[in-house]
Each structure stands twice: as C-alpha cells, then as structure tokens.
Write a structure and sequence with these properties.
By secondary structure, the protein is of the alpha/beta class. The chain contains 10 helices and 10 strands. It folds into 2 domains: 163 residues, Rossmann fold, CATH 3.40.50.2000; 98 residues, 3-Layer(aba) Sandwich (Rossmann fold). α9 links the parallel β8 and β9. GO terms for molecular function: glycosyltransferase activity. It comes from Clostridium thermobutyricum. This is Glycosyltransferase subfamily 4-like N-terminal domain-containing protein.
C-alpha cells in the first residue's frame, strides 16, 4: 500500500516561489505516493510584504476553510506524513500551529519547510512569550527544512541541529537546456547584454534597485536589454511602471510567462538575476 502524504501550503495560482515549489514536489511525489493537498492561499493574489502577517478580518475568516479542512484530514484520513510550508511572519505561522499540534497528538511525523531566510528576523523581533510559543511549536515537529546550508544558522536558538534538514531549490526539468546549448550560449557574443529578471515584481525582491541600476546603465550608454516577467506588486505598481517607461527600448515587460513562452524567455537571456533582499 502506498504511503499517504498530506501537503499543506500555498499552491498556484498565484505563482510564487513557494506555490510553484509545492506544485513541483506534489507532481513528483504523486507518482509513487498517495498525496493529498490543502491549499492555504485563499486570496489567490500577490500580497505585498508590508501586508503579510498583519491582522485582517477578511483574511482571518477566509483562512478558516483550509484550517478546518486540514484538521479534518489529519484526524480522519490516516496519513503517514504531514508536510507544511508555513509563512515566515508570526501571525502567518500561527495559522499553521493547529496542524502541528494535532499531528503530534496523532503521532504523525510532521515537517515544516521554510522557503526563505526571514525566520530569524521574525523570531528576533518577538517578545519572550511569543518566542517561547514559536520555539515550542518548532520542537513539536519531526523536523524543520531550510533551503540551504547557509540558512541552518537561523534556527540555532530554536531547534537542535539534528532536527534541521537542508533541501535546496530545484528547477522544473522542462526548463533545463543541454550542455552543448549552454556552451554555445557562453561562446556567442551579442551586441547587447541580454538580462532576465524572472520573479514577481516586489519591493522585497529588489526590483526597484534593479530598475534604478538599469537606468544608470542607460545613462552610461551601455547596450543592454532587460527582460522582466512576473506580477507587479500593487504597492509599487506606479513606481515600477514609471521606471519601465523611462527605460524605453532597454526593457521589455513580459507579464506572467508560463510553459513554452517561459522557456523561450530563459533561452534568449544571457544572464538571470536574483535580487531578493528580504532576509537582509
């Protein structure tokens, strides 16, 4: 009999790093396991980092549905493992606390997987009461997963090292290119520097700094094309669009790209930028 796994966290839409990673993992696991999901993203839109973790009555009401669904599944569906990708704000994380507690009571292994390096900053900002609450919840899990060895340190004060696991980010196989294609791309000399930013256009992802750097490159008459693709965060939409207009022919905004269009966009680019500044 196939082992049963329950995945709890955000799934597309909207497309974010975490929701896409969850979909990739689900697509892989379901080939060999009985996997069910609870999609915790009830708003289905990109929220600004400023609004994440803040109290919002509508968000609280909407969040009850996946919480009740998740509790019901954990209590009555006999899962072998519970896998959770929680938020990294205090209030956002606490939304997942009942899943952790019930899993422990039911003696079901439960793992939490953080997609980012904001946990330590969140933990350090809390008062002693909230710190103890977070610490207790983390230690009630079977393990905490981070994206890289460099992020293990952020859990030093919270959980013992033997409970920390590293699972690095992956890439969808359809976007991989052959080694000879990569070598050809590196050999090829273009008149213009072709740059790609492939992520949601959010302040905490460094999009403003990137556009400002591109404006400096334009002023210095550097030949380049900056391709950007993703959803623009509402809070900075006007600022981003103004900077795009100033860049003129040096920039191309593709909106949301998927499938073959996404692959073509990646293949045409010489450099891919990652400008995340959230964990600083």
């Amino acid at each position: 009999m196939k082992k049963k796994i329950l995945m709890i966290g955000p799934f597309p839409e909207p497309i974010t790093g975490m929701s896409l990673a969850n979909k990739m993992l689900y697509d892989g696991l379901k080939k060999n396991y009985n996997v069910q999901i609870v999609d915790t993203d009830t708003e289905k839109k990109i929220n600004s980092a400023k609004s994440q973790g803040k109290f919002n009555l509508k968000k609280v009401i909407n969040s009850f549905k996946p919480i009740l669904l998740g509790i019901n599944k954990i209590l009555f569906s006999n899962f072998d493992v519970i896998y959770i990708t929680p938020a990294q704000s205090y209030l956002g994380f606490m939304k997942y606390s009942l899943f952790i507690k019930i899993s422990k009571r039911m003696k079901i292994p439960c793992y939490i997987h953080f997609h980012g390096g904001f946990v330590k900053k969140m933990y350090d900002s809390l008062n002693s009461k909230r710190k103890n609450r977070i610490k207790k919840l983390f230690n009630e899990t079977s393990g905490v997963i981070v994206l890289g060895e460099s992020l293990v340190y952020m859990l030093d004060e919270i959980v013992p090292k033997e409970k920390v696991y590293v699972c690095e980010n992956g890439i969808e196989s359809e976007f991989l290119i052959k080694e000879e294609e990569l070598e050809e791309k590196l050999r090829k000399k273009n008149e213009y520097i072709n740059i790609l930013y492939l992520s949601n256009l959010m302040k905490t992802k460094g999009i403003i700094e990137l556009l400002d750097a591109a404006l400096i490159m334009k002023q210095e008459n550097i030949k380049f094309i900056l391709n950007i693709a993703g959803v623009i965060e509402k809070e900075i939409e006007n600022e981003v669009k103004n900077k795009i207009n100033l860049l003129g022919e040096n920039i191309k905004y593709h909106g949301i790209v998927k499938g073959k269009e996404k692959k073509r966009t990646i293949e045409k680019s010489k450099y891919i930028l990652f400008t995340n500044i959230l964990s600083k």
